[in-house]
Predict the structure.
Amino acid sequence: QQEQETASNHCIAKNIPTNLSDQMIWERIPKATQELINKVGRIKSGPNSEPTPLVRVICKDEKAAQHLIENGLQINNRLVPVEAPRKSTKVLQCYNCQAFGHYSSECTNRT
């Protein structure tokens, strides 16, 4: 089952070292904060999907996302800034399954 992401339940953590994988980021978030979060995922950019210092944080609910936006996110005993996501002006379409709302690199659908 794919996590449901809405504009209100996710946020963007900034300044995350690009050498950390999603799993490594998750393991470095305190357990109490992990209870607020469903999933973390590195934002990649460019034709080679280069990792950026931005990480999408999908929270359990809007209140949890707002808490992280206001207070930041602790990763590896370091507080990183968190902001609300920017509104996208382009339509995301997967080149793997042709569905909308995700990229092929994030696709979980079998074709």
